[in-house]
Design a protein that fits this description.
The complex is a heterodimer of chains A (about 350) and B (about 300). Chain A is of the alpha/beta class and about 350 residues long. In chain A, about 45% of the residues lie in helices and about 20% in strands. Chain A is globular. Chain B has a domain of about 200 residues. In chain B, about 50% of the residues are buried. Classes of the chains: A alpha/beta (about 350), B mainly alpha (about 300). The interface between A and B is large, with 57 and 52 residues.
Chain lengths: ~350, ~300
């Protein structure tokens, strides 16, 4: 009996040891001291290959490796508590530039950046006011506006839908832009908005996303714009089942259901990441906020052989016209982050 | 309101209930034999992962489901070794098992595909949507008959009697010369097979990829259903269907501006409904009738 209790205790200890090893293994970084600059990237919970948001940042790192010959390493944070240790490990290992991807990392990067004032940091999708942090922010509302416009132009019913991941201000910003875009094209357009959930699981719940999409399609919606990380795949499954359209987000997702994904709104995090690394390598790194939007190519829509048949020339001409109006400032897209605009948004 | 509770709602409910229902049936068998099964969540993760990996490797959905059943059984077998042979505290071992499964999944996908977020997209829907639907219907039919089957096995068959004795009077079982540990091992493995299948429905039938954390607490909801139902299979199935029905209604209510007495119901409240319901279900279950007498306790002697 005592022997067996001891045995079970050993088993549990072994379990825990394995767990710890697994958690730590991502942090065990090779640290060969090469003369070229070293860049560390911390992805958020969606993981490097979420085929969406993180994937776009990853492409930027990959481009930098190829074009600039930098030494790039990355870590995928498993949960909220993993951000700070991951960023801190990079800083301790004397990485020249550390990039944190995702608004959830704002607090963690600010804490580490304050402790390492001589290291350079970059933060995607949120703002940090420390002088050694460059904040890379995107005009997501502008991209969502284009999605709303494209959706209504393609729609036969005049009913279009939005499916967001976690119900947070960032995703509300997408929703608000989408609705504005839809109404801009057709005053009487109906928009339906759904959110997958209120927890971080929402980014990884394709079955639920699929149910939401099926419910929207059944209500007469014929184009759905989705901004939900890895859950987006569920919306594309529903589009396949119902043979209706969807619009992808952040990365080019057109190939996930060729012919049914009208377009993907591109958030060129890769461009922002590559530019930041280039600046750091050339010794021109500066802190502060850098904005990417339709005007400077930070936000765009994807055209490739997968959607060439469905996103007609006429549609593209109209979208390009909207783009130039937004870039010129003659068309103002409401922004959920701006208080005066938010007041007009109806949840 | 009428437009919410229609045929589509029913189908949506059934689809949402499928993974929870299968896991709950697994958990029920296991607990009836006297073994606490907190590990359902982890077993679902293993099933979801194994199913998706097998589909990527073979391109066949049925093989994916088979792989999930086998992987779930093996996973449960490991859990069984700890709690039955090693006599580990069952709740602690179950929690550790969940953490292990959740931690190992990204490790496996990283080793196989270089991605820690999940598996690549499973490419089958485009070519044979019809056979995919047929398979879903078959699994659905199995899941819906499962509670009745288990009710019959537990109540009428010799094996069911052994399982019930293992949970209620293991001493009597031992005196009759039957090994309680053996009966419980069988029940634990059966629970792994069912929970594994439940997990695989998420990645193989209801969507087309494995994503990290995609089980999202469904294993715990299944366990809550079993407890709320007082360890009765058909009642547990009904509880699962109610959970899913609320979730499906929630999905359809969202964004329609549904109001109660003139006040619009916040979307957040609707989204929290399934979890809230689980909580209430477990909380009001204070009587604890139907709990197997030797649940979580060693048998005999």
């Amino acid at each position: 009996m005592t022997c067996k209790t001891a045995l079970s205790r050993t088993f549990i200890l072994a379990f825990m040891a394995i767990m710890t090893f697994l958690a730590a293994s991502d942090l065990l970084l090779g640290a060969e001291g090469l003369p070229k600059i070293r860049v560390g990237v911390v992805f958020d919970k969606g993981g490097r290959d979420d085929r969406s948001f993180n994937a776009s940042a990853w492409r930027g790192l990959d481009d930098a490796k190829k074009q600039l010959g930098i030494d790039g390493k990355f870590v995928e944070a498993m949960d909220d508590n993993a951000y700070e240790p991951a960023i801190r490990t990079f800083a301790r290992k004397k990485f020249d530039l550390i990039i944190a991807v995702g608004f959830g990392q704002a607090e963690a990067i600010s804490r580490v950046a304050a402790d390492f004032p001589d290291r350079r940091f970059a933060l995607v999708d949120a703002v940090s006011h420390l002088p050694n942090v460059r904040s890379l922010v995107f005009g997501d509302h502008e991209g969502a506006f284009l999605a709303g416009a494209a959706a209504v132009m393609k729609s036969a019913t005049g009913r279009v839908g939005f499916i967001g991941g976690m119900d947070v201000p960032l995703i509300r910003r997408f929703d608000m832009g989408f609705r504005a875009g839809a109404r801009h094209v057709r005053r009487d357009a109906t928009t339906i908005s759904n959110f997958i959930g209120v927890t971080a699981d929402s980014w990884n719940n394709p079955p639920k996303a699929k149910e939401l999409a099926l419910a929207q399609y059944n209500r007469g919606v014929d184009v759905i714009y989705v901004a939900a990380g890895a859950s987006g795949a569920g919306v594309f499954d529903a589009a396949g089942a119902k043979e209706k359209f969807a619009i992808g987000t952040d990365s080019n997702q057109n190939g996930m259901r060729p012919g049914l994904i009208l377009t993907s709104i591109l958030k060129r995090i890769d461009v922002a990441v590559l530019k930041t690394i280039t600046d750091a390598q050339a010794g021109k790194f500066t802190g502060g906020k850098v904005e990417f939007g339709v005007a400077n190519g930070g936000i765009d829509y994807a055209v490739d052989h997968h959607n060439a048949g469905v996103l007609t020339d006429d549609l593209r001409r109209k979208l390009d016209e909207l783009k130039s109006q937004i870039a010129a400032g003659t068309l103002k897209v409401p922004d959920y982050y701006v208080e005066a605009d938010r007041a007009t948004y109806k949840k | 309101m009428n437009s919410i509770f229609d045929f589509e709602w029913l189908m949506s409910s059934l689809r949402l209930a499928l993974p929870i229902l299968l896991a709950a049936m697994g958990g029920l068998i296991c607990e009836k034999s006297g073994v606490v099964n907190i590990a359902l969540e982890g077993l679902m993760v293993i099933g979801a992962l194994a199913g998706a990996v097998a589909v990527v490797a073979t391109g066949s959905q049925p093989l994916g489901l088979c792989a999930a059943v086998i992987a779930g059984s093996i996973g449960a077998g490991i859990y069984g070794i700890f709690v039955l042979h090693g006599r580990a505290q069952q709740v602690v071992a179950g929690a550790a098992f969940n953490m292990l499964a959740i931690g190992v999944a990204p490790y496996v996908t990283k080793a196989l595909y270089g991605i820690s977020g999940g598996t690549p997209n499973l490419d089958f829907g485009v070519h044979n949507a019809q056979s995919a639907q047929l398979l879903l219907n078959i699994v659905m039919a199995f899941a819906l008959t499962c509670p009745i089957l288990i009710w019959w096995i537990l109540g009428q068959s010799k094996y069911g009697l052994l399982v019930r004795f293992a949970g209620e009077e293991p001493g009597a079982l031992e005196s009759a010369g039957v090994s309680t540990a053996l009966v419980r091992t069988g029940a634990v493995i059966a629970s792994g097979a069912l929970a594994g299948l439940g997990g695989a429905t998420l990645s193989v039938l209801l969507s087309s990829s494995f994503a990290r954390g995609m089980t999202g607490g469904r294993g715990f909801m299944a366990l809550a259903a079993v407890i709320f139902a007082g360890w009765r299979p058909v009642t547990a199935a009904i509880v699962c269907l109610v959970f899913a029905g609320v979730d499906a209604a929630q999905i359809r209510l969202q964004g329609t501006g549904y109001a109660v007495m003139g006040v619009e119901v916040p979307a957040q409240l609707l989204q929290a409904m399934p979890y809230l319901l689980t909580l209430i279900a477990v909380a009001i279950r204070s009587g604890r009738t139907g709990v197997p007498k030797y649940l979580g306790r060693e048998g005999g002697f």
